[in-house]
Amino acid sequence: MARPRALDLFCCAGGAGMGLHRAGFDVVGVDIDPQPRYPFEFHRADALTFPLDGFDFIWASPPCQQFCALRTREDLSGYPDLIDPIRQRLVDSGKPFVIENVPQAPVRRDLILCGAMFGLRSYRHRHFESSLPLTQPAHPKHVVRVNRRGENRRQHWANGGFITITGDVGVYCGPEAMGIDWMTGNEMSEAIPPAYAEYIGREVLRHMGVEILAAAE
Q1: Nearest to 126 by CA among 35, 175, 190, 182
Q2: Phi and psi for 187 in degrees, rounded to 5?
Q3: Cα–Cα nearest to 129, from 147, 105, 107
Q4: Which of 196, 156, 150, 152 is nearest to 173 (CA)?
Q5: What is the pLDDT of residue 35?
Q6: What is the pLDDT of residues 117-157, one digit of tens each?
Q7: CA nearest neighbour of 200 among 59, 8, 2
Q8: Measuring CA to CA, which residue among 197, 202, 196 is closest to residue 214?
Q9: What is the Cα–Cα distance from 140 to 46, expressed in whole angstroms?
Q10: Hey, what CATH class is 5-208 in?
Q11: How is the chain classified by DSSP, letter by letter?
Q12: Dihedral sign, CA of 7, 125, 65, 37?
């Protein structure tokens, strides 16, 4: 049985792409920059012009820099705001789609995901605007971990990962915490855990009436 095809726009190094693959899609990634560690078919191209024909579902993760917490500490005004243009393109396509971004971004909050929902040690909240109805999982209480001196571990480098602070929410971003083992640290800083896209991908397949396939790693 042929697997449905998903287009992963603004794919970066493939956090979302890996999740869609695990859900049961054949995945094609598109990014304006080279992505040598993207784990599936990749095209270096503009997401606003890349052909959408032949895909059953479209995922888009437009640049978040204008909306992320770092904008208060450094000038990120040079990064484009592509949410409105890609939204209009996806709506016009008539295909099922999801747009992912940080909580401060102007995307409709059809779904909010957190690493705690999937047993991860990275909270990394993300909001998702979807053309299909998605089921919102329960949001477990956050647990603040401390080091052996009783200090808040969110303030320290540890185990090959790093800590960022968004408001009062600490996010540990190491490979094990994110469920990612093929990216550099810089690539992980822009990625979402594959578990998020796997969850959404399975929801999308259910709406499409497609039998969920077991995906080989």
Answers
A1: 190
A2: -65, -40
A3: 107
A4: 156
A5: 97
A6: 998 877 889 999 999 999 999 998 876 554 444 444 433 33
A7: 59
A8: 202
A9: 38
A10: alpha beta
A11: -PPPEEEEET-TTSHHHHHHHHHT-EEEEEESS--TT-SSEEEES-TTTS--TT-SEEEE----TTTSGGGGTS--TTS---HHHHHHHHHHHTS-EEEEE-TTSS---SEEE-GGGGT-S----EEEEESS--PPPP-PPP---B-TTS-BGGGS-BTTB-EEEETTEEEE--HHHHT--SS-HHHHHT---HHHHHHHHHHHHHHHTPPPPPPP-
A12: negative
The CA-to-CA distance between both ends of the chain, in Å, stands at 18
User: 211 pLDDT exceeds 90?
Assistant: no
Q: Is the pLDDT of residue 209 over 50?
A: yes
Amino acid occupying residue 28: V
Q: Which of 69-73, 187-191, 193-197, 211-215 has the highest mean pLDDT?
A: 193-197
